[in-house]
Write a structure and sequence with these properties.
Elements lengths: L1 H7 L4 H21 L6 H13 L5 H15 L3 H21 L1
Length: about 100
């Protein structure tokens, strides 16, 4: 299931623009709320990266995904654990901030 999700991200313009909208929304929220959260510099950088990467054209995003996702899938268990850890850290920062 995770493989299909990751491989499908840049597969169509519709999915690409949906991902861009979500990335922009989350990035902007992090930038706005970062000063009130623990580790404000980390969340400012993360928000800036999310907002900045919304400028990547779909074809370039698609080419990047085709090249890197198959390599990243070899580390899927580690990516899952890292995602859980980062998600827990974000949840803590939201609650604590």
């Amino acid at each position: 299931m995770a493989r299909g999700f990751l491989l499908g991200h840049a597969s169509s313009a519709r999915l690409h623009y949906l991902e861009l909208a979500l990335r922009l929304l989350v990035g902007a929220a992090l930038l706005v709320r970062a000063p009130a959260m623990p580790w404000p510099q980390a969340f400012t950088v993360a928000g800036g990266v999310l907002v900045g990467t919304t400028l990547v054209p779909w074809r370039r995003h698609q080419a990047f995904a085709r090249r890197t996702v198959p390599q990243a899938l070899r580390f899927l268990p580690m990516l899952g654990v890292a995602s859980l850890g980062l998600g827990a850290g974000l949840l803590y920062a939201i609650v604590a901030g």
